[in-house]
Design goal:
382 residues; mainly beta; five-stranded antiparallel sheet; four-stranded antiparallel sheet; 33 strands
Length: 382
């Protein structure tokens, strides 16, 4: 591949002809802030909200900001977009305690945003389970799943005519199993569920609207949290959050090509990998590593946030590139052709972009400010 200079890569990215719109959702938590390394609840905070972005060009265009309950608690995959980009789904794991607004308690709300309305607006608010977190939609666009962190369950919803309806609940494990994220395989026949409380990934079987445990639990690293699945359905990459102790943590690669699904590799990426997503070409994995950036700057384990790019090679993960990013990093998303990667900097309250040429990550000018701490980022899944 031809090598590009930093200036040339930035110029090529910014001078590219207008692309087709590509919607992304940034879920923003207005309640929680990090002050000198400690998370605090803002007194009388403004409403949480969702920023609707267009990643079709750089810098991303803000389409609208819609009030909706949301939380930094849980993996940064707690928003989702239907394949036709008609609806946005936003889960809320925590809310202010009505009896004591200086603290939070588990929430269970799932908001449905009509992305085609003028302006976009919440058209439904449904109940999932306690600690509603990771949410995903199948490729057919007719089924949604929500992982409930404080309940040990997954909620199942039907999607039809621009609305959601609850179908049922699947018990994954005890509440302490910490069910965090759930995502369909591209063929719609299975879904994977991370359990950060007992360090497993459970496999679900999906038959029509019937979702059940498949009887297979996969052993990954310490506290599996968020993950992404390649669009060709061959691989899942799982971010293992670790003990948030300053030690190097890991990403595990799961082969989905034959049953039973199994881990083929685990690689160290640095302290506390939070956001993770796979590229449109099915070859790369972008990982947001907090790296101590949410700690006080005087703390001996303080560091700058990192975006790490891995490549999937014959069932193994290979480190390709690394770039410094902002603080308390959360979600990550690729643009449609994989030449740009966007991350959320929670403390700076912004979306930051990088160019990616298959070998290097290059910071791009033009960061996008959002209203609140950005804590979940997704596009429609391929």
């Amino acid at each position: 591949m031809k090598q590009l200079t930093l200036a040339a890569l930035c110029a090529a990215t910014l001078a590219a002809p207008p692309a087709l719109a590509q919607l992304a959702l940034s879920g923003n938590d207005s309640k929680a802030v990090s002050q000198n390394g400690a998370v605090r609840i803002v007194p009388n905070p403004p409403a949480d909200n969702v920023t609707i972005l267009d990643l079709g060009s750089h810098p991303p265009r803000v389409v609208a900001t819609v009030p909706a309950p949301h939380s930094v608690v849980g993996p940064p995959t707690s928003v989702a977009i239907t394949p036709d980009e008609r609806l946005g789904l936003v889960a809320s794991a925590q809310k202010l305690d009505p009896a004591n607004p200086a603290r939070t308690v588990p929430d269970n709300r799932l908001s449905v945003i009509d992305l085609r309305a003028t302006p976009p607006a919440v058209v439904q608010t449904l109940e999932a389970g306690a600690g509603a977190s990771g949410v995903s939609v199948n490729r057919a666009g007719n089924l949604a799943l929500v992982a409930n962190r404080n309940a040990g369950t997954v909620s199942v919803f039907r999607i039809a005519d621009g609305r959601l309806a609850p179908i049922g609940t699947v018990t994954i494990g005890p509440a302490a199993s910490g069910v965090s994220h759930v995502q369909f395989t591209p063929d719609g026949r299975h879904a994977l569920v991370t359990r950060d409380g007992d360090f497993m990934v459970s496999v679900l079987r999906v038959e029509g609207e019937n979702v059940t445990l498949a009887g297979r639990d996969i052993t990954v690293g310490i506290r599996p949290y968020g993950f992404g699945i390649t669009g060709d359905g061959r691989w899942a990459a799982v971010a293992n959050l670790g003990r948030v102790s300053g030690d190097a943590d890991t990403v595990s690669l799961i082969s989905l090509t034959a049953e039973p699904f199994r881990v083929t590799d685990t690689i160290s990426v640095g302290p506390t990998p939070e956001g993770i997503q796979v590229s449109p070409d099915n070859r790369h994995v972008a990982v947001v590593v907090i790296n101590g950036s949410a700690r006080a700057t005087s703390h001996p384990l303080y560091g700058r946030g990192k975006l790490v790019m891995l490549r999937i090679e014959e069932g193994r993960l290979v480190r390709v590139a690394e770039a410094e990013m902002g603080s308390w990093g959360q979600g990550v998303a690729f643009n449609r052709d994989g030449t740009r990667v966007y991350v959320q900097n929670m403390i700076e309250r912004e979306i930051q972009g990088f160019g990616f040429d298959g070998q290097r990550l290059t910071p791009l000018p033009g960061r996008v400010a959002v209203e609140g701490g950005p804590s979940a980022l997704r596009t429609a899944q391929p």
